[in-house]
Amino acid sequence: MGGAVGGLSYTGNLFENKVTSTNIVSNGYRYIISPDYNNEGEESYSFNPEEPVSFFGKGDEAVFHQVYKQMYEMFKNTKGDGIFRAYGHGNFETLFNGEERIRDAKTFDSVMSSKNKNWKNVDNMKDPILIIYACLSGTENNGRLVPMGKQISQAHPKLTVFAFNGFVTYDASVSGIKNSNLKQNSGDGNGIIKVYYGGKAIAAYQYKEFLKHYPAFK
Predict the structure, then answer these.
(1) CA distances from residue 79 to 13, 61, 103, 187 in whole angstroms, order as listed
(2) 20 to 30 A Cα–Cα from 185, which one of 70, 120, 136, 177?
């Protein structure tokens, strides 16, 4: 059984992995947004194709690393599925690599390739996918901004990019990313997941509604 987003059909681990999510609800979540911390160096987890990649730094709160490690254990043996997942802090037109600000697709490609050796092959893959679990990675502010999700899509027009218009909730008590808020610290659950292809946004969904259709999305 497959799925379709914005007219594109998908099968396999993206929507149909067999991992069961827990139903535990916790108020101990955190948001991904521009952090203020004194980081002594980037946390390094793996060099594994294709899954997954952490952009968090050593100075980040434990919950961010905990959630990433959960996802790494879930997807560490998925070489060849063409789905890349990036976990990190974001801000307007920015993705953070520890304290480093990534502001363009060229820098992202360089950093991503240093973390994941298979990223250099992304343009030669069949129907590759990148999911960016970072706040504001898909926020365009009525066209006034070019978020990282869109910039990466422009640089890799055959890559499908999932990014967030809103604030992504990290909660180690649940499996995967289960909530996104449109307003920071609001708990409104109205965050939006956007889909980019060919440098353009081809679809946008309220994340909580998207998960109802694709509950296995991680």
Answers:
(1) 11, 29, 28, 35
(2) 70
